[in-house]
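Bench log. Compound arrived from synthesis this morning; before running ITC I wanted a structural hypothesis for how heme C sits in the protein. Inputs:
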Amino acid sequence: MSTASTVAAITLAVAGVLAVGSASAQSDYKGEPSTFSKSYQHITNAPEWAADDPMVLLQPKNFRRWVFIGAPLTPNGLNGGHASFPEFHNVYVQPEAFQYYRDHGEWPEGTMMAKELQLTGGKATEKDGSRYEPSGRGYFPGAVNGMDVSVKDSTRFGESKNWGFYNFGHHAAPYEASAAPAPIAACAGCHIANASEDMVYMDLYRPIVEPLKLPE
Ligand code: HEC
């Protein structure tokens, strides 16, 4: 190989690495580490970031003890056998973020929504994947099968309306210990286009987020 073609080959190889690098999720977010939130004033169960990468989120601890705000259901049986997010989507938010939302009508910096996917359980007896329990025909909870998290942090995610999106695996638990931010096209884009309030599908949760009135 001539010197010129060796240089060309190396240049191409480097360009290839750079191209792969620039296609990575991080490239969607231009924030500088020095400007990232250091603290979340209204949040005690704060998002934790990897020591060696301030965009990598650690799996939130004990999210099943947070406030449960809803469980949208997209059964595989009604989605050609492969729903994008099978099947129950159990959504939890930190208790202090929940209280702040009730008091102020908005989610504070550092809010996290954890969405754990839960498959339907038992053997389906109907074509649509449903089956029977003494309560009736329907879909009933089975094994858990994945976890996604959205995080509100305007210093990191200004490019996607202040929310970042993370996938900790679509498979049985345990889920990944940490996750890199998903590309905007993979998650945030659909939330930007369709979510009813501040990137969250609040219309689906509002019926049980508002305080329940007692009879007069
Ligand atoms: C095609 C549209 C679409 C895409 C792509 C999408 N979502 Fe969502 N997401 C929704 C809808 C609709 C809901 C509420 C209803 C539901 O869960 O079925 C939702 C709910 C959520 C919730 C619960 C809080 C909320 O905003 O309602 C989280 C967390 C979430 N998605 C994370 C993610 C992550 C992470 C990705 C990428 C891996 C992603 N989403 C990709 C449409 C989408």
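What the model suggests: Residues 1-26 have pLDDT under 50 and may be disordered. Residues 3-22 form the longest helix (20 residues).
ITC booked for Thursday regardless.
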